[in-house]
Amino acid sequence: MTPFTWNADREILTPTQFRSVIGGGWRNYIKRGYVWQPISALIAGDLSCTTFPGNVQFAADSQGWSDIVIDGTFSMQRHIAERNGHNAEPELRLSMQVECDHNVAGHIDTLDPDPDKWRPWQVVYPGAWDCADLRLGIWQGKAARIEKVIDFHSLPDGDSEFIEHSFLIRSSHARVLAGPSLDVSPWQNGYAELFDSQAFVARADSQLRGVLLKTPVAWYYTADGTEVRTPIRVTFEIQDDGETVRCTKHIPRVLIATALSHGSHLKADATFSPDASPETSTCDGMARGSASGTWETLLGVAGNYSTDNESTTDLMVESLSGSGLFGQFRHLFFGFDTSSIGSGQQIDATTCRWKFDRQSVSGHDLNVHTQIYEGLPASNTAIANGDYMSVGVAPYTDTPRHLFSESYDPTFVTYTYNQTGRDAINTTGITNTALSLVEAQEGGSPTWAASKTDSLQVYMAESTGTTNDPLLTVTHSAASSFGAWYTAANPSGY
């Protein structure tokens, strides 16, 4: 059996409509009796799909297992070879786990404000790697497939020739994996390698095969929209349990660099500062809590002072004379109108710069660290007492700054955002941030000493002129079209 006629390419007709051709015929319809009807490949809100031949439960998080059942309600192979339009294949069960660096939540890719850019057949896991997102999805078609996409938005660190990404396929009864000669199987031989050829998986007792990989490639689009596809090498190794195969894709680093370079002319830097008083769309300011108690008590009190119209404002922690007691904590809010970036843009780099007027440590190091977080004020244009402790807990940089040992006085200090911070940029609205202390947002406590104050005085947007204003700089570009993809399973007989 030579299966080359049963693997056809996909044509994109519109952002939400696809056609795949086999011998010039349509493949995105299924025969129900004597009527051909389209297959819906939408993923439900719980990340499951039962609207193709089989069902899939996608992992809630990027490092979880996805469970795949192929019912094989229609076999293209039998339809072509036997002219049999009424057929079914035995059930095939698989599980898949992607070996990602970060465990991030997945969501159906319908969050873009522009519905034309929705991908309701994909689950996206943003930031699954430092330099790439993970996408798991369904190919629409008479024999729908599970797809796996690595979507690079920047070049990984290092100088290795290949960037390697692996995933695991586990099944108690899938035993066939074959290249063009149908004679390689990691389940039988322990190892297999494919390049520019096809791979198949099926039940061990079935002569009809479903596709695991359809000529694995990486692709990108040039500035004029031309698609460039390059075959890449994939290796397969059986694991100790005898049921799991590790599949590793070897992506040339130069290919990623080339793909990203085609979008470099679309990159743009945009700078943003909060509005000075009276505010129109954003603001900056301070919220304070006061109490005589432990650090935990101080963090739990209601805010009792706030301001959003001063030229300079302090980030501050104050200890009292009683053992272990603290009396005051302040943190700062900064809002930036980043809506001009617009939808469909990826954030490539972000920095936030402040001008510090004074660093004050009153004879003792309370051992606190500054960090940037999400700001959660009730209003975009005013800071209120109730905004005290309305700050996120996920840090926006990888390196907090020690308030005592590092110099802030008086100079500009720039913080470089990590992936969490870049993901928080609201490209169609207001991005609210907060300058706070690690010990307040992430746990721990200042090192107590009697009657001490550690503080930073920061220039706000109300300062004279704009030279000293808080400044957010965002480098962005059109969302990358480059991805490295391969499918995870396919109905038997396709």
Number of helices: 6
- Residue-averaged pLDDT, rounded? 78
Helix content: under 10%
Distance between the termini: 12 Å
What can be said about the biggest beta sheet? 12 strands, antiparallel
Structural notes for this entry:
With 494 residues, the chain is mostly beta strands. The chain has 2 domains: 276 residues, no CATH class; 196 residues, no CATH class. It is 7% helix and 44% strand. It is built from 6 helices and 34 strands. The strands form 6 sheets. Strands 22, 23, 24, 25, 26, 27, 28, 29, 30, 31, 32 and 33 form a 12-stranded antiparallel beta sheet that branches. It has an 8-stranded antiparallel beta sheet with strand order 6-7-8-9-14-21-20-15. A 7-stranded antiparallel beta sheet has the order 10-11-12-13-34-18-19. The longest helix is centred in the middle third of the chain and has 9 residues. The radius of gyration is 28 Å and the shape is elongated.
In short:
The protein has helices spanning 76-81, 186-189, 253-261, 295-300, 419-423, 438-441, and strands at residues 10-14, 17-22, 25-26, 29-32, 35-38, 48-52, 54-57, 65-70, 92-98, 107-109, 119-129, 132-139, 145-152, 162-170, 191-195, 199-201, 210-213, 217-221, 227-231, 233-238, 244-252, 268-272, 284-293, 305-307, 312-319, 326-337, 345-361, 369-374, 401-402, 411-416, 430-437, 453-459, 471-478, 483-489.
